[in-house]
Amino acid sequence: MTILSVMADDGARRLDRVLRKALPGIPLSRIHRLLREGRVLVDGQPREAAFRVRAGQEIAVPVNPARNGAAETARAMRATRPAGKPEILYEGPDLLAVNKKAGVPVHGTEESLDSLVRAYLGPGLPPSLSFRPGPLHRLDRLTSGVVVFSVSLNGARRFSALLREGNIHKRYLALVEGRVDGPGRWEEPLIRENRGTIVRADGKPARTAYSPLAWYSGGAGKAGDGYTLLLLEPETGRRHQLRAHAAFHGHPLAGDSLYGGGPLPPGIIHSPPFLLHAWKLRAPLLPPLEAPVPDYFRPIGKIPSP
Questions:
Q1: What is the C-alpha to C-alpha distance for residues 197 and 275, in angstroms, rounded to an integer?
Q2: pTM for the whole thing?
Q3: Across-strand partners of 5?
Q4: For the residues 257-282, what does the mean pLDDT come to?
Q5: SS3 of 147, please?
Q6: How far apart are CA 229 and CA 174, in angstroms?
Q7: How far apart are CA 87 and CA 91, in angstroms?
Q8: Which range among 145-149, 257-261, 269-273 shows the weakest confidence by mean pLDDT?
Q9: Taking each helix axis from N to C terminus, what angle separates 28-36 and 15-22, rounded to the nearest 10 degrees?
Q10: CA angle at residue 234 from 250 to 115, to 5 degrees?
Q11: Cα 295 from Cα 267, distance rounded (Å)
Q12: Do residues 213 and 231 lie in contact, with contact meaning Cβ atoms separated by under 8 Å?
């Protein structure tokens, strides 16, 4: 018999989801069978899968795993602990903001930003059966800039609610082909297709505000009229939204071959294949966040602070 104590960050979660996280070595099919048979007890009472647990309750499960969830998590973090620490822009009790480098995946590998953040937070996190810190939004592997992580369940829920309500405001820097002379807004619907995203009438609504910050004449570009450093402000959060919108309007990101971009101008060195930087983020739960502009943007000219 395994006894699990429900912690603060497990409260109000479904019983089956808590058990899935707390007992990673037990097949999910077995957990659901035990629940159906009434063999999982919460404070001595059999409970169904959808039962919402509360902090302070005890869960009794008739299994004897080699490791409980907390020990398994600690072991995995020690085994995959990446070197160094994340570049922290803000750290609070519920949320952590870090500066992601271009080329680093947000999650999915031992070298990901997620692994780095979990290793950094691990020793100081309060015990929990089911909550794990993680990224609350995504950036493409080749995009740099601000990424916000949850430190507590409360932070994850509140930030996610702000995302759904459209109350997270982001500003990106992007080097695009051609000259963009004035501000405007792109509002074409987008839909995923194969590896990328395209404009199509049956796609999901997508809106991007843009304004030019600087013009770069180094190299001719495919259109023969240089490059523009754009400030992009997504008003929705579709996959590859900025890259797809810019390409549709004849200004693909320089170097973004997936969306038809030609090579970067010769003066840009030591950079990723294309230049897209999640520069600033504003949210009610956080102080204003700004990720330092990478050095490879410097040849473009002085970047103002609008």
A1: 18
A2: 0.79
A3: 58
A4: 92
A5: strand
A6: 6
A7: 11
A8: 269-273
A9: 140
A10: 110
A11: 12
A12: yes
* pLDDT tens per residue, range 100-136: 999 999 987 778 999 999 899 987 777 778 788 899 9
Residue type, 14: R
The half-sphere exposure of 296 on its side-chain side, counting CA atoms within 13 A, is 20
CA dihedral 205, 209, 215, 217 (to 10 degrees): 0
Is pLDDT of 90 > 60? Answer: yes
Joined together, the tokens standing for residue 193 give 């297709």
Which domain does 261 fall in, by range?
168-306
Q: For tokens 């995504």, name the residue.
A: 138
Q: Which two three-digit tokens encode residue 209?
A: 């505000």
User: Could you report the per-residue pLDDT of 198-221, keeping only the tens digit for each?
Assistant: 999 999 999 999 999 998 876 655
Q: Which of 47, 68, 89 is the last residue of a domain?
A: 68
- By the 8 A CB rule, do 101 and 122 touch? no
Confidence of residue 305 (pLDDT cuts 50, 70, 90): low
Tokens linked to 126:
């309060």
Q: pLDDT (tens digit, 9 = 90+) per residue, 170-188?
A: 999 999 999 998 999 999 9
| Catalytic residue positions, numbered | 140
The pLDDT of residue 159: 96
Read off φ and ψ for residue 38, nearest 5 degrees: 75, 25
Can you tell me the mean pLDDT for 264-282?
Answer: 92
What is the radius of gyration, based on Cα positions, of the chain?
A: 23
Tokens of 190: 């987008």
Residue 138's CATH number: 3.30.2350.10
In a domain, 74, yes or no: no
Domain end among 137, 167, 197? 167
Query: How far apart (Å, rounded) are the C-alpha atoms in residues 115 and 283?
Result: 24
